[in-house]
Amino acid sequence: MGFSLEFLGTGDSAQVPVYNCNCIACLRARSDESLRRGPSSAVVRIAGQQWLIDAGRMDLAERFPAPQITGILQTHYHADHAQGLLHLRWGVNMRLPVWGPEDPVGFADLYKHPGILDFSQTWQPFESRKIAHVTVTAVPLQHSKPCLGYVFESAKGRCAYLTDTVGLPTETHEWLQQRPLTYCVVDCSHPPQDSTPRNHNDVTSALAMCEGLDIQQLYFTHLSHEMDQWLLKHKNSLPSHVHIARDGMHLFC
Amino acid sequence: MGFSLEFLGTGDSAQVPVYNCNCIACLRARSDESLRRGPSSAVVRIAGQQWLIDAGRMDLAERFPAPQITGILQTHYHADHAQGLLHLRWGVNMRLPVWGPEDPVGFADLYKHPGILDFSQTWQPFESRKIAHVTVTAVPLQHSKPCLGYVFESAKGRCAYLTDTVGLPTETHEWLQQRPLTYCVVDCSHPPQDSTPRNHNDVTSALAMCEGLDIQQLYFTHLSHEMDQWLLKHKNSLPSHVHIARDGMHLFC
Questions:
Q1: Which domain holds residue A238?
Q2: Residues of B in contact with A59 (CB under 8 A)
């Protein structure tokens, strides 16, 4: 018994296409739906349960009519990861667990008016919880708000989902070093920059943060349109185990 | 030369259907797209310009590819009226005017990270501005946040858009008494309540706030699913000049 992860969105906060942008990446995405990138998020399917990683998409009620969402693993409370909660909260006759980091602010007025959302089960760093036969562990990331990655483990393999982040805290890197990963999904928002990026990885820091880790397949997500532009010319320069995530892509573990 | 108003959304913050609700109104809306209600908002078309009233819909970039939105007339900064700005702001190569009330808080981190949005042109109470041949006036409403209605006037007629509100401030009622309205669009979120409602009109207070005004056609908007349930039985009890707004409906002035 394994689990699967489907990318629901693989873009940054601006998404691809960017509003009013006519760069080659945005033009292509506007004419070919398969090249679009929604807000970075995913659904993990475990023994009939569906856990969202983040709720930045605004079509969640349409896409996952109740009671199809078991709960939400929230990485952090920036708008592009939490805005879908603004509508879902006004559902009725149910409670929807949102397991996220301790963050005194949260997003907008979600804590003040949570509706059906239950924010009470926050994660401690490196805490593990069982979802059916899968162990999920929350690992701290480096971002401008409290932010967690999630590592899913079954007898069939291990998958880490690590966005938003720039590099990794030392303790998270050390924890991951002990655990070979079938899949590692990482924030790679930017093409290579001249200086160390802030808040989000560029290609250089995304590859650097994975050094010393045992990763079979590495997936970049949270891509900006500049990153898509860069890939049109430089995709072949990436190591062969590096893949570019796409909305709708599935990983099976 | 006149203008037109199209309702983009006519629901309350929960929209219709409500997530996980199986009431008769939500079941009907789920099976018949024409009965759905998105976040209350509209587009006013004036001589080739398109001004949105509120930005609560999350499909604005798809529906109005740049540069189709001239600007946004923001009634107030609650999530269901402002959440669409979270994405639009990250557009490029343009400025998008958002004319709203003075509100020191705004919504989420929009003021901190406005991107292409220009919030500088706030309205004074009863201030008028010209948009081509149409005069637009901002009138104060009664709500839990600073909130403005908008009155559009051309040689062909006058249309008032008054949501979110419960009743009207005396000075707004007096101002409107002097000005016959071809159309008046008002917040009617709730079926008749036992006690005076807070923040949003029920049927009783919606009708009461229009007493003394010269209105040819009155449209209810911002409807909850409870209001839709009530209408299934009581629609015929409403005065003959009262209509129920629907997403996609047009008014021509």
A1: 4-252
A2: 58
Which residues in chain A show pLDDT less than 50?
none
The total number of structural domains in chain A stands at 1
In this predicted model, what pLDDT tens digit does every residue of A225-247 receive, in sequence order? 999 999 999 999 999 999 999 99
- Tens of pLDDT, residue by residue over B190-227, are 999 999 899 999 999 999 999 999 999 999 999 999 99
User: The CATH number of the domain where A82 resides is what?
Assistant: 3.60.15.10
Show the tokens assigned to B22.
């199986």
Q: Which of the residues A16, A85, A86, A116 would you substitute to probe the B interface, choosing the one with the greatest number of B C-beta atoms within 10 Å?
A: A86
Residue ranges in chain B whose pLDDT is less than 70 = none
Global pTM value: 0.97
Min Cα distance B84 → chain A (Å) is 9
